[in-house]
Write a sequence for this structure.
């Protein structure tokens, strides 16, 4: 056991719960040159902050910088996330952190979380995520759109609202996440990752976990959350898919896009086990082409990965989509009745209702049957 430092005379009172004055905890940091696990004592617990004894290593103080995200583990092995807000020097030296919040793995989330991913770039993943969010907001939903293509995101470009947020300041601990959300239209709030921000590109695991936890808290204020993650098969991509209530994989009919989409499913299986995925086939020349791609991918996923891959939507190639991108205006706003616009609206309905995609040529039969007595 480490020597106990004197309690500060701040007048704060200890509160019930996981943290009490005098408890020993383990502080984890992954800040460069300060990374490690350090035993600390809880000095005081307040409504907004907790004071910990200054972390030590081999007889020297570990100066974890203000703004750095940290993890705190109690003697009962309960884990909490927090952030350093102050370092007090002098006789009463201590480390002040925000009131730790339990790392719950998303148990408190109530609104649907839709994560949109792809095995490679260039398949229209971000266009689908943006237009899905805009379409749902236009229909009266409260939507939180999150660009987690960290360091290379372009949701801001597609929305035409570039430069309205600075995620780098959030990562550095200078701003809270809700302070930098853009509101491009009624019902839609967006976290814009931007591109070329070194703080965002080089985020540590704890900083990424802190950001994810703040997003989770904001998600409780939305009807649906939509996340656009990076293309590819990185660990952050598969971890985001694992946290989703609905995981969407986007591909095109091109062989290399199909191969990369399957690779994403395979790596997810190796890292996280099995789950159901939603498939969107984008930029198809005709409906039958999309159905063929979906059929082949579903067969491979079931046979070789033991995974359920459901067809959520088929989006046709549409010149209006390209024009909308050049105009920096979402297709769901500019040309909602275009072929791709209608397909994206149907995709949103399918995902939120949890039903199966019904190709347009078959939907007339379904509607007719629904009108007949006794048919449901």
């Amino acid at each position: 056991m480490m020597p106990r430092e004197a309690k500060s005379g701040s007048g704060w009172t200890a509160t019930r719960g996981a943290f009490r004055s005098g408890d020993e905890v383990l502080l984890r940091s992954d800040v460069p040159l300060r990374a490690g696990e350090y035993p600390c004592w809880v000095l005081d617990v307040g409504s907004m902050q907790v004071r910990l004894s200054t972390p030590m290593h081999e007889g020297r103080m570990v100066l974890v910088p203000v703004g750095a995200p940290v993890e705190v583990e109690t003697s009962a092995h309960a884990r909490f996330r927090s952030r350093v807000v102050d370092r007090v020097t002098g006789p009463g030296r201590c480390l002040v952190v925000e009131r730790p919040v339990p790392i719950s793995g998303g148990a408190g989330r109530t609104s649907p979380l839709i994560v949109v991913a792809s095995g490679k770039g260039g398949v229209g993943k971000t266009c689908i995520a943006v237009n899905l969010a805009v379409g749902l907001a236009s229909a009266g939903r409260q939507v939180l759109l999150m660009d987690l293509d960290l360091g290379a995101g372009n949701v801001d470009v597609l929305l035409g609202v570039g430069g309205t947020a600075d995620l780098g300041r959030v990562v550095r601990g200078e701003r809270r996440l809700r302070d930098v959300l853009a509101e491009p239209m009624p019902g839609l709030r967006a976290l814009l990752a931007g591109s070329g921000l070194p703080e965002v590109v080089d985020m540590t695991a704890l900083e990424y976990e802190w950001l994810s936890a703040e997003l989770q808290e904001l998600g409780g204020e939305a009807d649906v959350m939509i996340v656009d993650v990076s293309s590819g098969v990185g660990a952050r991509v598969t971890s985001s898919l694992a946290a989703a209530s609905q995981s969407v994989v986007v591909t095109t009919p091109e062989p290399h896009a199909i191969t990369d989409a399957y690779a994403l499913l395979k790596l997810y299986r190796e890292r996280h086990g099995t789950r159901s995925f939603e498939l969107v086939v984008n930029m198809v020349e005709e409906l039958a082409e999309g159905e063929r791609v979906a059929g082949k991918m579903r067969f491979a996923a079931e046979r070789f990965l033991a995974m359920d891959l459901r067809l959520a939507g088929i989006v046709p190639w549409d010149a209006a989509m390209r024009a909308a991108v050049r105009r920096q205006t979402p297709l769901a706003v500019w040309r909602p009745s275009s072929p791709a616009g209608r397909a994206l609206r149907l995709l949103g309905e399918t995902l939120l209702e949890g039903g199966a995609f019904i190709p347009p040529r078959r939907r007339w039969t379904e509607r007719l049957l629904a009108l007949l007595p006794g048919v449901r």
About this structure: Residues 13 and 181 are 35 Å apart (CA to CA).
